[in-house]
Write a structure and sequence with these properties.
The chain has 406 residues and is mainly alpha-helical. It has three domains: 43 residues; 93 residues, Type II secretion system (T2SS), domain F (Receptor-associated Protein); 234 residues, Receptor-associated Protein (Up-down Bundle). Helix content is 73%, strand content 6%. The protein is flat, with a radius of gyration of 30 Å.
Amino acid sequence: MSAYQYQALDPKGKLVRGVLEADSPRQARIQLRQKHLRPVKLAEANHNRSIENQGFRALFQPRLSATDLTLVTRQLSTLVQSGLPIDECLQAIADQSRKGSMKALLLQVRSRVVEGHTLAHSLSQFSSTFSRMYCAMIEAGERSGFLGQVLERLSDYIEQRQYVTQKLKTAMIYPIVLIGVAIAVVIALMVFVLPELIGIFSHSDRQLPFLTRLLIEVSDFTNQYGSLFLLIGIALFVIFRRLLSVKFYRLKWHQFLLRIPGISGLIISIDTARFASTLSILLGSGVPLLESLGISAQVLDNEIIKSQTIEVADSVREGGSLTRALSSSGYFPPMMVYMVSSGEISGELESMLSRAAKTQERELEVTLETITALFEPFMVIVMGIIVLSIVLAILLPIFELNTIVR
């Protein structure tokens, strides 16, 4: 059974779209006619099977946002724990979904489950939405018989990740907007206001003050070459983004970021907290330690820290302790290493990792709040200096004019 996306005309001639399940296109058309719909367009939703071995497969897959993924996981957890079969759970969630992409995705997953595949295998076919960590936890839940509880833990984890990500984005929005407004105001002054005001003094025979002459030069330069520099800036940004898609340059860039005071600490806090929380949820769901370490390394953003984490997994695979491997990497905070050591000794590694992740996230939150609080007065001071310089550049010739008149 496959999922089909359709466009059809209702009895009033209105075009409607939707998704349905059928064994063949013929059966799908029969179902549409039974609903008094006249088919206009019918296509198999999971047509990407024909290109399954190609690298472009992910481009044709429906995707879910983090919010939708959390909702689906929470609903699936509730239905599974109520005792319903997996295919009926997926069908129920798809039926009540108002988003076409979500419905299509769930029906495609359901069609694979009906064919006899496990839920983990069915989800793994849609890697653009369901990560390796997500599928590994589902597989562990299916093997252990506690799929409902694993899904509940997984939905909590996704919600927490989404909260931390949103916190980071919120903390960055204010500084970016403030910088953007400041730059826009200065450019507007230099391009539209200052030429009119300072043009009066530029034709004077008297030697203008240095600050005024400097401002006139900057204003002229901005008017003549501002557009060119803007285009160059956009081109450099596009080239930079393209270079970051190459692993060699991405490694160099991430290595450079880890050398910048302040930024390096922020990056390490974000990635180590993500590593600890991911490893904790995987271990708690029954995924083996070595597999959990490999998956946890893949969720990190910084390539340098990711490579060090992979070396940690290799060291543990060779028989070393997790504590010693984390300590030798040099990127994991001493408190986290100490808590991991305590967890290994007491046999409560999962709970200690969870505590370490929460500690890191709290410290990260405090750091972001501090940076945001300090940035506002800093930008006010910088803008004050710029505006004061512009005002003085305009007023100084006027003061000199008054002196001559007297």
